[in-house]
Amino acid sequence: MTKTFLAAASLATLAVAAFPAQAQDNAEAEDFAAMIERINQLPDTAGDGPHPSLIEVVEALPDHVVYRPADLSAVGPDGLGVFVWGNGGCAADGTSSRFQLSQIASYGYLVIAPGKWRSGPNRLEDPAPQRAMDANGQFPPSPTNAAQLIEALDWALAQNGDPDSPYFGLVDENALAAGGFSCGGVQALTVAGDPRLDTVVVQNSGLLPPDAPRLGGMELGKEGLLALHTPVIYLDGGPTDIAYENGLDDYNRIEHVPAYWINTPTGHGGTYHEPMGGRNASIVVDWLEWQLRGDAAAGRTFAGENCRLCTDPEATIEMKNLR
Question: Total domain count for the chain?
Fold first, then answer.
């Protein structure tokens, strides 16, 4: 994996020092650019849940991308959960994980990610520029920040109380979650102390140890875990995932809230670009349905004798501090 791969795909976060610019290979960079373009040609998907979803940018929240059920009339009062999302690389591309976020929205969620619509055949902006080191070996400031997740949450709750909003009365204010990928996972942990949240999802991410070099947006130290007040789930991609050690270390340090750690052999790239977001998107949907809606059938993915992940030969699951 080259440095160009990490920056262009918004995956660079946890081991930037391990990928010096001098090691870039032009042929590999061109191959990767071609792969990204192929992904961008894949059509947007509506998810396979009961509420086919759409992607949109709303005037009142121009620096975010919104995923929601296309037919809000089918949702019903208090029917929408809210999931605010931090992008990989903290990139200003709210569609960089579009397949996963559309999948989640199709299960009756209002999903909001910071940035512009920069990915896919329907993108409204040019792709996000590469976040490259300068001549002094420093990265530019983070294109997005954790405060934008709170801004998204504030907006969703304000819409719920606005009679002129299409979301009026549709948001379940007791079903609120934050999540993110890589650098975006750190953003989710940064806002985890917000008392309105009901769970946190950390994908291919973890807080860096004190002596590690930090990409902008990843300043939160391990002490930030103490702010957690909800159940938290970590999804890692195995030893080839550059976030693997940091995510597992986070899990081992958490002693005050229910915590789950799930490991599948996907590497750092997860399953974000697979149809419907792949198996990890399904895991996240089940987690949200269980934690936010008390869906016992979804909970069987994680808990109970012979839980689905417990018997999956490609998955490792650990859990602790259960209530």
Answer: 1
Q: Residue 32's Cα: distance from chain center in Å? A: 22
Q: Element (H or E) spanning 293, and its range? A: helix 278-293
Which residues, in sequence order, are bridge partners of residue 262?
A: 235, 317
| Contact (CB, 8 A) for 27 and 258 | no
285 class by beta-carbon count within 10 Å (0-12 exposed, 13-18 middle, 19+ buried): buried
- Sheet with strand 316-320: strands edge to edge: 53-56, 64-69, 109-114, 80-86, 171-181, 199-203, 232-236, 259-263, 316-320
Residue 314 is predicted with a pLDDT of 94
Tokens 């998204």 appear where?
152
Residue 129, domain CATH: 3.40.50.1820
Closest CA to 287 of 313, 252, 258, 256: 258
Taking the chain (323 residues) in consecutive chunks of 10 residues, what is each chunk's mean pLDDT? 28 32 49 81 96 97 98 96 97 97 98 97 86 71 95 98 98 98 97 98 96 82 97 97 97 98 96 96 98 98 95 96 90
Token couple for 100: 């996963």
Contact between residue 241 and residue 229 where contact means Cβ atoms under 8 Å apart: no
Burial 185-195 (b: 16+ CB within 10 A, else e): bbbbbbbbebe
**CB under 8 Å, gap of 24 or more: what pairs does 68-72 form?**
68/105, 68/109, 68/110, 68/111, 69/105, 69/106, 69/108, 70/46, 72/166, 72/167, 72/170
**pLDDT for 201:** 98
Structural domain including 197 reads 3-320
Q: pTM of the entire structure?
A: 0.90
**Residue 151, CB-side half-sphere exposure with 13 Å CA sphere:** 17
Spatial separation of the C-alpha atoms in residues 317 and 323, rounded to whole Å: 17
